[in-house]
Amino acid sequence: MDRLVPDVSRGNKTYGLLAYLYGPGRRDEHLDPHLVASWDGFAPDPGRDPNATLKQLEQALDLRVNQRGRRRLKNHVWHCPVSLDPDERLLTDEEWGEVARRVVAAAGIAEPGDPDGCRWIAVRHDPRHIHIMATIVRGDLRGARLHNDAQRAQDECREIEKELGLRQLNPGDKTAAKRPTSAEGHKAERLGRPEPMRLQLRDRVRQAVAGAADVAEFLGRLEASGLLVRRKVGPSGDVLGYSVAHPDDRNAQDEPILFSGSKLAPDLSLPRIRKRLSGAVGAGLPGEAQVGDPGAGKARVPGSKAARARREAADAVDDATRTIEDGPDEAAAAQLVGAIEIIDVLAVRAPADTRAQLLAAARAFERASRSHVRAERADNRAVRTAARQLLSDGYAGNRGEDGGTVAMLLSALILLAIASARWHSARSHAQQAAAASAAAEQLRAAYATVAARPMAAMAAQGRSLPSPVRERQDAVIRAKLPEAQAAEHGGNDWDALAATLAEAEAAGHDPAALLEQARDRRELGTAESVTAVMVWRVRRIAKLSAAPSAAPGKAGAHPKSAGPAAPAPAPQRRGRPGRS
């Protein structure tokens, strides 16, 4: 969450900005606008001095701008709101004044002891933020030296946070996407939009990349989604870049407002997208047996094509999680890039009652997928292929097998997000670690919605098992899952796992061996509910339906009455890519 945040922008209308700062605001939110600091401490203050006017303040600020005559600088107004987190204590006018002086010094507007520093003011019209405004002509009539001013202002705010005892922002590594400007935020408010258009376009572009086979398909998806797409074509006819706009987002000249990919996020430039798409994706990888392939010697899993795609995606996510935990950094970084594609696709293909949570998870994990660890030469085709399959096999509902496989996939994604947070934290990627943790929370919320129905049905089935069957499954769970003993015994998730093991036993599996195999897939210390995780993992390994398939009281009959037993799957080595 933001703490003390500067937001630098430039303009050319001194009076217009002053009228906004001292005006009532768009919703009468500006209370008691007044100066807390200025370049010399004596600037006219129309908020507190009844004899001062906005025109006088404009003339004082523009004095040096006008002295340049025809050499007037373009965009001579420097504007930097500095905001305070709602949970922090209120700062006094004196503290805000010191914040303003330090920010303008750090940005190169007016350094201490420089008699030729630019003219500036700091206006407070809200308890939790100020607006710093400057005209960037120095006393010697040269323009201010503002190279990297926004980053220097950010760095100074981090130091101020420490000195004022405020909670501090996680340090960044300059791989974050550009935040919407204050002007974009104000425009969204004015037009009644829920958020700036930049954020919506970033989502749409990410979703168009997810699972795309090549650049032509990516650009075609953008156009098919209703966005305006402008290609930058070189002399050879090759596409060198692109920009996008929403048809309803236009400037004063009624022209569409275009954003290049690199302005939306560093990894959405066309060269970066082309690198990501350079590894082909398809229905599967060469030489890899697909679930449901009769030639592979495996039972076909139940459900619709969409349900099977989600089951296979959960397998790919589990493999990616093991790579993040145990693989080299380059391979782990590649899996993070692939995983965001699965979350992006799920956000548009999942049941409607979870899409807002999944979009929030995708936005958070987008930050976690990007760091200075290079992933270009590592293979993430498995997760990218899974994303493509999710996209091509249609929407999943929230009932029966469809709903169960969505819950199955979300359970796997939660563990991947937790593993990602730990991976980033171990490498001091503070912002990415926080983003991965935030994504895990949103995924948990979506999981709770989707999993409620199938888990409740399985729990009811578990409670209805014949006593000998139930006692046998409880003994297996106690023996093989000591982590679940204290907190989960007797709960719904425990009951659902008992039903799952009974169903697997009826299909000819050894419940103890099956649970041990599922447990050994990866550590369970980060699981919020160990038994819930094991429900979905066991059902995938045993190729059981993702929704209960037998009537209560009949599942889990002893295997002798279940007909010929199918062989239990052979244990796989931990490091081997495979299903989980």
> For this entry, what is the oligomeric state of its chains?
single chain
Structural domain count? 3
What distance separates the N and C termini?
35 Å
Which H/E pattern describes the elements? EEHEHHEHEEHHHHEEEHHHHHHHHHHHHH
Percent helix range: 40-55%
Strand content: 5-15%
User: What structural category characterises the helix and strand content?
Assistant: alpha+beta
Low-confidence stretches: 283-299, 550-580
Rg, rounded, reads 29 Å
Globular, elongated, flat, extended or rod-shaped: what is the shape?
A: elongated
The number of helical segments is 21
The average pLDDT is 84
Number of strands: 9
Largest sheet: 6 strands, antiparallel
